[in-house]
Every structure is written in structure tokens, then in C-alpha cells.
Specification:
Blueprint lengths: L2 E8 L3 H10 L5 H10 L1 E9 L2 E8 L5 H9 L2 H11 L2 E2 L11 E2 L10
Antiparallel strand pairs: 1-3, 1-4, 1-5, 2-3
Length: 112
């Protein structure tokens, strides 16, 4: 099963971080449905300070670009993304159109 690992920062504001976490206790049904429909089988987000780390296990047909295109056409997902953008801060290495940055895998114990 393919896996994608991505990272992003939250703004350094404890109130905003708490609110971001509150939103993720139970995400909106439309957002959950958009993830499942795109082929996301499992997703976890971890937080250390202001740094977020997301792990997505996806099916073999999943495409990050196709997911982005579908999300752009989904008003409820766009509403969610607008709210999340108030909490998020791009990494210095992000492209202008990019929030989450794909991480490079540098070690795999199973491959040793």
C-alpha cells in the first residue's frame, strides 16, 4: 500500500493550535468523504511544537494531483481548507501554491 508523508507548520499561537486540534477531533463528514473517495485508506497527523507531520496510506489509484483537483471543485472542502489556512503557516521551502510539503523517505528498517 503506498504511503505519503507530508509536513507543514502551524502558526506559533497556542490558542490557534488548540483550535486546530479541536477541529480535528471530528472532521467534517464531507472532508472525510472526500478523503475516502480519493483513495485515502488511513491518515494520521502528529504535532511537535508547531510542526505537523501527516501520514497517508492510500490505495494504488490515489493521486495527489487528482485529489487537489477534486478538492478545488468541492465547496465544503474549500471551506474547510480556508478555515485551516488561518492556523497554518507554509514552510520556507514550500512553493507558492503549496501548503503541505512531501517528505523524502531516508530510512526503512524493513529494507535493512
Amino acid at each position: 500500500m503506498p504511503r505519503h508523508c507530508l509536513t507543514l507548520d502551524l502558526k506559533d499561537d497556542q490558542t490557534a493550535i488548540s483550535e486546530y486540534k479541536r477541529y480535528h477531533v471530528k472532521i467534517w463528514p464531507e472532508v472525510r468523504e472526500s478523503l475516502r473517495d480519493a483513495g485515502v485508506l488511513e491518515m494520521e497527523i502528529y504535532l511537535a511544537g508547531t510542526r505537523l507531520f501527516m501520514i497517508m496510506d492510500v490505495n494504488d489509484t490515489f493521486s495527489l494531483s487528482a485529489k487537489a483537483a477534486t478538492d478545488a471543485a468541492n465547496a465544503k472542502v474549500q471551506e474547510w481548507e480556508t478555515i485551516m489556512a488561518d492556523f497554518q503557516q507554509e514552510l520556507p521551502l514550500s512553493r507558492p501554491d503549496q501548503k503541505w510539503v512531501i517528505m523524502e523517505k531516508v530510512f526503512d528498517l524493513a529494507a535493512q
